[in-house]
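Q: What would this complex look like in 3D?
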Amino acid sequence: MYGHRARIGYCSPPVVTEVFVYEFYKMVPPGVSLLLTTLEVGLEYTQQAFDGSFNRSIEAAKYMAGAGADVVVLGGNPVNQSRGIENLPGICANLSAEIGINVVASTLCQKEAMEKLGVKKVVSAHASGAQHDDRHHQQMENMGVESVGVASLEGYKLLGYGKIPTDCAFEIASKLKGEHPEADCVHLASAHWPTAHVIDKIEIELGVSVMNSQQAIVWKALRTAGVTEPIKGFGRLFREF
Amino acid sequence: MDWQRIHGARARIGYTVAAVTTEVYPIDWYRIVPDGVSLMMITLPLGNRSKDDVEKCYEISIESAYTMARAGADLVLLGGLPINISKGDDTVEGLMSKLEGEIGVKMSCSALAQVHAFTALGSKQVVTVHPFLEDQNPRHERTIRDFFGLEPVGVLAGGSSLVALGTLAPGCALEWGRAAMRAHPDADTLYFGCPHWTVIDAIQPLEDEFGISVITSLQAIAWEAMRQTGVDDKIRSYGRLLSEF
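A: Here is my prediction, written as structure tokens for the whole assembly.
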């Protein structure tokens, strides 16, 4: 079968999912497959969408376990953090005990990734609009790092992330690093805009570590499923840890 | 890479997935389509195919067409032939026209994609292979006869289930296809139902071995999606449909 090495379940918050799948298969080695369920986050980030998505994640995780997934990722940093970051380890552990496979949460994947990379001061680039800057700042602080800068692309909502040209991630990362030279990490927030191809470029040209939501999710899922080889092309995280 | 591009620079195809979870479909999609054609997905809560499930999925499919249009799809294709035709065989084209008018984006569906594929290939006598239990055979036979207007000459059931489709080995489709053709050598077309199991590697070998046409749900959907959005590349290795039409 396609996923003969590992089958990774991912509960994908955007109601329409496009970029994640495309970039997932650029990153993973042959023999790793993705089981995907789309959730309920659409044009706006609302508590109702977060609650609905979380509840559907739990149902999807059960289905994925029944289908033979090796690990399930509860996707969506905002969805995860809406439950309280301190509650996430317990939520994952309890669900794992119930369905009999490993469960990880996007937020915890990202937190662990930054710990591995030794991140202290982070700048976050996102695409959800400047009105979400404070939320992104707080999300990083909740993960135990100092958030020294946040910037957003403008003109895209979650449903439009597939329309973001592939050069945007590098441009906004460069701008942020220029404005906040003390940053030791660029966080490309959200797993649903094109970012995978610029991780190495940002690390090399800007002299920082990159923690990208999708990279962290896929990295943690692979390692949890026992796929441990270094992977080149997508940052230090995949090469060294 | 061209850094000014988006992943779906040539075409972005919105597709409603008639399954709670999708695994095989996107893998095979990206094996078939050329670079620059992307897949936007919404999964549907089709559990045990109960009447209620199908009804619910039908309604969500329609809602999804609006969502995909807002997300910028160039074409929306509603998946799940049983869902597409659940309001009656003669309702499909009307629904697509109505939605197209409402959302301002081209529409198609799995059922129409397969109609167009059978027509392009000139199919008349069809043997069907599906991965499910034998209790689905009458449904498949009826669909070939009544919806597609073709002669069903046989149906072979693989004996699996929706939840287990991702675990089927790639060799299953080839083995079952050969068995179906040996049992029904009068068929001019071998049809693999359901786009969520590993089938595409069996297409070309079976066409070459038996001198027939092979249609699979996913191949027909990908072909329809590309041709409707102006992606006219002739694609090799996955059957006559993609290489000649």
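A: To summarize the key features: Chain B has a mean pLDDT of 95. DSSP finds ten helices and eight strands in chain B.
Q: Very helpful, thank you.
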